[in-house]
């Protein structure tokens, strides 16, 4: 203890070590170690029972030539492109509505955020019921009130299935982005709007020249988080479409799961997972670089 006190007097940052060590141990066990363990598995022919032998980079070479890997990665990218702007803009619009000084403001906030507290199983069950072709609520409304005679198979055609997945994800997660935007909106000084009104600025001008510019920092954060969340999509696709029709909506995480646990190829699954991890790191670094470049 005396030696530690002398050393911490010389190096003050060591005083924080006893407080950081418990978290560092947990962080290493549950995050850092699995990353290196996964990379080690990716260099082997590994099954759920045992290690079958070292294969080097064979799993990665097979991944490059695997059309199913590129199809699932393309499906994931498709979802990112469709969902990210939709959910980011949706969160902003809901935050602007919930921030209005009107009666029922609290009800709006609760109603917009409520789906986010539901589990993905509940959300998926609701969507499956809503979009059933023969007994679904949406087709019933279209046929009863809009005269649509043709039965629409929402989950049987790729483009419609993507619409269902994006719609389900939007309804489920947009409340989280709304809360982030709402917090940022309430940090904008009210004096900005008062000065703009004195100068004769309209509500639209206040939105374009005060609100939106003030929300740029949080927009970067929301967009980064949404891109990462969208890349990791799995649960709602698995429960709503199962990756179908065929494999046209199967994301990369689902393909990794099927390869690892259904095809009993843990080594190849680990190789795809590690490659996917590198892709997420690169995407995040590019976005952070672009943000820092715009701020300069």
What do these coordinates show?
The chain has 296 residues and is mostly helical. The protein has 2 domains: 1-42, no CATH class; 61-120 and 161-295, Orthogonal Bundle (MetI-like fold). It is built from 14 helices and 2 strands, in the order ααββαααααααααααα. It has helices spanning 2-10, 17-42, 58-65, 67-98, 105-113, 120-130, 137-145, 158-186, 190-198, 203-214, 216-231, 235-240, 252-262, 266-295, and strands at 44-46, 51-54. The chain has a two-stranded antiparallel ribbon with strand order 1-2. A hairpin with a 4-residue loop joins strand 1 and strand 2. It is flat and about 70 Å long. The two termini are 47 Å apart. The model has no long low-confidence stretch (mean pLDDT 88).
Main attributes?
MetI-like fold, single chain, 2 domains, two-stranded antiparallel ribbon, mainly alpha, 296 residues
CATH architecture of the largest domain: Orthogonal Bundle
Distance between the termini: 47 Å
Which structural class should the secondary elements be placed in? mainly alpha
Dominant shape: flat
The helix tally amounts to: 14
Task: Quickly count the domains.
Answer: 2
Instruction: Tell me the total number of β-strands.
Output: 2
Say what the CATH topology of the largest domain is.
Answer: MetI-like fold
Tell me about the biggest sheet? 2 strands, antiparallel
Uncertain parts: none
The CATH superfamily name of the largest domain is: MetI-like
Order of strands across the biggest sheet? 1-2
Tell me the helix content.
over 70%
Family: Belongs to the binding-protein-dependent transport system permease family.
Membrane topology: Multi-pass membrane protein
Domain ABC transmembrane type-1: 73-289
Pfam families: BPD_transp_1
